[in-house]
Amino acid sequence: DLTATPPRFGGVRPHNFIYPASVYKMYVAAEVLHQISDGRRRLSDTVVVRSPNVVDTAKEILSDPRPLLRDNNIVTVNYLLDLMITRSDNSAANCLIDLVRRENINDLMHRYGWHGSEVTRKFLKRKFEDPGYATIRGTETCAMHAADFLYRIQTNTLVNPWVSQQVKALLGRQLDKSKLAQGLPDSTMYYHKTGWYSTWTHDVGIVDDGTERYVIACFLPLPEQRAIATMKELSASIYDLMKRK
Known about the structure:
alpha+beta, two-stranded antiparallel ribbon, 36% helix, globular
């Protein structure tokens, strides 16, 4: 609860680690923007898309008019960031992970004590991984780390205000509204990142209706078709609780 002083926290198994699916793309975005803030890169820098990073064969959001990335496409860092977060593009994520390097992403994670939530894998089959990463453990995170990440965005303390607000702006343009967003009034702003794969369905974000502000991090070990109705009900219940407190 971001409206309380100090903020109040409640959770169910918040320290349990779980495969985060595409939620961990927000960790990648943070390091990209960190490097831009430091002057090491620019949003306008161009990147050549190369195989085997090109993995998407269909768009996560079918209504999005932007084409799938192809081998030898030349695009900007800003374009890849937007694709990775708003459409959850796996090819874009792979390119950005290579650009900023996993060790740098994880140094940023360790700065805030998010040990165990390191980005270990790209979004591709292990046989195509870089040397040293083919046999590494899979990426995991927990609700506590994701919630703290979002809290730092809201309070402008993720690296600095520029990085925090740039990440928040990206999350505010999320195109996937099928999960927790369903349980919120249309007038509510929801800055979030979703993820799903096989038997995992997740959504984490910042809810702001102008009066109530809170962070929610929901990781469910359920396939998407089962999780969606649960997420809608959960989101609506939490919103109602916040309005009545």
